[in-house]
Amino acid sequence: MPFKTSPAPFTHQGNSVSDTMRQVLYALIPGITVYVYFFGWGIVVNIILASITALSCEALMLWLRKRPIRPFITDNSALVTAWLLASAMPPFAPWWMTILGTAFGIIFAKHLYGGLGYNPFNPAVTGYAMLLISFPVEMTHWPALASLSNHYPGILDSISIIFTGQPTGGLTLDALSGATPLDTMKTALRDLYVLEDIKQNPLFGDFGAKGWEWIGNAFLLGGFWLIYKRVITWHIPFAVLGSLFIVSGFFFLIDVDIYPSPLFHIFSGATIIGAFFIATDPVTAAASNKGRLYYGASIGILIYVIRTWGGYPDAVAFSILLMNMAVPTIDYYTQPRVFGQ
């Protein structure tokens, strides 16, 4: 049978960068909402600061590069970077850190490589990693759950802490903050405590970190929405979570006293948001479906290796950045076969 095609112009699916990025922002809303419920309004303040900074730096770099400003400002890519970075930062982080991390991601990780589509590293993760390396104390200073601190940090408390370093109403910052569950787990295991004793800490819930379990479920819901809307495919999230589950499950079966369960690793820290929202970045991730499986599986393995034997409790950012560097090699060896060969 002859293969007939219609003459140009051809129809368009209707997808655009702006619509795709808007769907990502929608998908982040459930996780951010649950985040606010457990940790207060600091994340909202951070999102506002990061968004203003991202749009300002985007406009500045476009102007310096003599590129049209309006089309790129309105494609929502800068806002996605801002929201992802703000979601990964401690809600009580000083205002200047949010601005610095966002500006670094937009300027150095995005525009100095040529802008959207040319950056080899995810801008949000790059900004986060820079802050974590440069200011490790501030980046690990997280608020305690409202149920554990006996005080829910309201909007005024959050604003006061972010801009002045002290809460309102005579409270102290120590009364509202505490170590993250991953940091607590890593420190306790290093001090030779067994898991049964560590889990008596009120920070831990049924199978993961208390509060973080629900935040992970909310981001998981947003991730399923992105798959449903075909913004992303299932390959990278499945590979990240699957490889992390298998590796952590293997060591958990070897010794249940010193290796946390797979569910703890999946529902603690930034695993879910990293698997669905950051590792799936179409610019910095592998292109083919086979390559995405290799890419995602490697991220999951690196997360476990760095968390267990490395110096950082949560390793999602570094794992994604390391595999961003490996993407060109993965794409080279996983190219789909040319039709007819």
Task: Please tell me about this protein's structure.
The structure is a single chain. With 341 residues, the protein is mostly helical. The chain has 18 helices and 2 strands. It has helices spanning 17-39, 42-64, 69-73, 77-88, 95-107, 123-134, 136-139, 146-149, 155-164, 173-176, 181-190, 195-198, 212-228, 235-254, 262-266, 271-278, 289-309, 316-333; strands spanning 142-143, 177-178. It has a two-stranded antiparallel sheet. Helix 1 (17-39) runs parallel beside helix 4, helix 4 (77-88) packs parallel to helix 6 (123-134) and helix 5 packs across helix 6 (123-134). The chain is globular and about 65 Å long. The two termini are 21 Å apart. The model has no long low-confidence stretch (mean pLDDT 87).
**Rg, Cα atoms, Å:** 21 Å
Largest sheet: 2 strands, antiparallel
Low-confidence stretches: none
Quaternary structure of the protein: single chain
Query: How much β-strand is present in the residues?
Result: under 5%
**Which secondary-structure class do the elements indicate?**
mainly alpha
**Helix-strand string:** HHHHHHHEHHHEHHHHHHHH
The pLDDT mean sits at: 87
The portion of residues assigned to helices is 55-70%
Q: How many β-strand runs?
A: 2
Please render the helix and strand layout as text:
Layout: H1 17-39, H2 42-64, H3 69-73, H4 77-88, H5 95-107, H6 123-134, H7 136-139, E1 142-143, H8 146-149, H9 155-164, H10 173-176, E2 177-178, H11 181-190, H12 195-198, H13 212-228, H14 235-254, H15 262-266, H16 271-278, H17 289-309, H18 316-333
Antiparallel strand pairs: 1-2
Helix pairs in contact: 1-4, 1-13, 2-4, 2-5, 4-5, 4-6, 5-6, 6-18, 13-16, 14-16, 14-17, 17-18
